[in-house]
Specification:
This protein is α/β, with parallel strands linked by helices. Helices cover about 40% and strands about 20% of the residues. The protein has 3 domains: about 5-200, Rossmann fold; about 205-355, Rossmann fold, CATH 3.40.50.1000; about 390-560, Gcn5-related N-acetyltransferase (GNAT) (Aminopeptidase), CATH 3.40.630. The protein is globular, with a radius of gyration of 27 Å.
Length: about 575
Amino acid sequence: MGSLTVTLILADFTVKPLVQSLNRRSAEPRFAARSGPFDQVLPVLLDPDHAAWQPAPSLLVVWTRPEAAVPAYARLLAGQTVAPDDLRRDVQRFADLLRTAAGRVATLLAPSWSRPPVERGLGLADLRPGMGLAHALTLMNLTLADGLAPAGNAFVLDSQRWLAQCGSRSWNPKLWYLGKLAWTPELLALAAADWPNSGSKLVAQARKILFLDLDETLWGEILGEVGWRRLTLGGHHPVGEALRDFQLALKRLKDRGVLLAILSKNREELALEALREHPEMVLRPEDFVGWRIDWNDKAANLAALLEEVNLLPQSAVFIDDNPAERARVREALPEVLVPDWPRDKLRYREALERLDCFDSAGLTAEDAVRTASYMAERQRRQSRTAVGSLAEWLGSLGLTIRVAALGADTLPRAAQLLNKTNQMNLRTRRLGEGELQHWAVQPGQRLWVFRVADRFGDYGLTAITGLTIDGDQARVSDFLLSCRVMGRGVERAMLHVLVRAARAAGCRTLAAEGLPTARNGPCLEFFRRESGWEGDGDRYVWDPARDYPVPGHVSLIDATRPG
C-alpha cells in the first residue's frame, strides 16, 4: 500500500465544507485532506514542530482573511489612514512566513485576498491610494504574488474567479456569525475543484497535446465546397471574428507548450494551402506538431499521431464540432479527453477557456519552444531514412550534451521533468520544486542536469541524474531523461558522469536500483541490456575504479569541471 497523500489547510475561518469537498472528489484511495486548528495560522507557520504538521503534508493551503493576516489592512478597515508602504511591509512579512513553510511541502497555495461582494467600500473612491479598500487589496495581492515567486513551488490563486462564478451566493452573513464561515460552501466547492489533491501532480496532471478538426472548428464552412478564399474567418463577420479569437486562444496554448495537431477529413493539399494562404489565419502549418488530413478513421489517426510523438492517450484532448466523431474517439480511446463542444461558434473560445486540463504550475523555456522541438524531431526521423545505419545516423547528428549541477535557473524545469517523466525513469521519484531544492543541498547528495542539442535544434534540459553518497558507497538517486532523446547516447553520457563523480568522491561501490512501475520498462531494459552494468534483479552495479566512456559521437561539455 502506498504512502498517505495529505493536504493541510490552514485558515482563520471554518473550512470544514472545503475539507469534505476535497475528500469527496479525490480519486486517490490514500488521500486525506484535513484542516489545522481553527484560527491558528500564524502559530502553525511559526512552529515547524507543531502537531498540525503530522502526518507531513505534500500540499499546504493557507487561506486567510486580509484583516487577520495584514495588521495595516485591519487599521484601514477601522477607519485609520494607512500608507501603501505599511501594507507592503506587513504583506512581505507574511510572504516570508509562507516561503519558509513552502520549503517543507511539495506545493503551497494561497488564495488571494478578497472582500464579500456586498461591501461597497468608498464607492467611486475605492481605488484611491491610501483610502480605498479595493486599492489596498489589489496592492496586497500583487505584493504577495511577488513575495512568493522566488519560492518556485508557492502560488497565489485568484479567488476573484470563484466570486465571479458565485456572485451574491459567495457570502452569507448568517454563516459567518453562526459558524465563522467566511465563504459559502458553494464557493468553497469551486475552490476545491481548482487545485490538485497532491502538490506533486501539479505538473504531471496537465494534458500535453490537443487534436483539432478543421471544417466548422478552426474555420467556418466546408473547405472542399467553398475554397479557402470564402472561409468564414476573421473580418467583420461575428462568427469569423469569434473563430479568429478561438485560434488566438489556441495559439496561446501552443506558446505555453501544449502541442497542437490536426485530424481532418479533407484533402491535405487544400487544407495546408488554406492554413498557409488565408490572410486571417492565426495558426499556420508550423504551429502544428503533426497532422492526419485524409478520409480515414479519426480515432486510428489520433492513435498513430500519438505514437509518432511518443505520447500516451491520457495526454491528449480532441476537439471536433461533429458529435459522431467525438463519440467515435470516446469509444475507441477512452483515456483521451473529448469535451462536449457547443454548436454555437460564438462560444468556442469560452469552451476552450473553461478547460482546466492544460493548467500547469509554470512556464519554462522548453515549454515555449516545444512545438519547434517536435518539428525538428520530424526532420531527424526523415534524415535517418537517408542514412544507412544507426551508427552513421547518430554520427551525423552532431550531438552535444552540456552537464551542470542543479541551480536556481534550472530548478523549475528540473522539477517539471522529474514529475512528468515516466518511461525513462529509474525510480520515478516525485518532488515539488521546494522539496527538490531542499534535497539537493543535503550532505552527500549530488544532482546534475543535462541539456542536449544537435544540428537540427536544441532539445533543452531533458535529463537529470543524481547520486547519494554514504561513506565509500554511492547510489543512483535519480536517472531520468525525456523520451525525445532516448537511444542517442545520452544515457551513456549520464552514466559516465555518475561513475566519474563516484570515483572522485572516493567511493568503492556504485549501485543503481530500479523501482519497476507500469511505465518505466524502457529504463529498466536499458540498464539490463545496454548499460554494461552488472545486474541482479533490478539492482545494477559498476566499479567506480573503471572508466565508463562517453560515446564517440557525443560531445560532452561539463560545466562542473574547471577549464
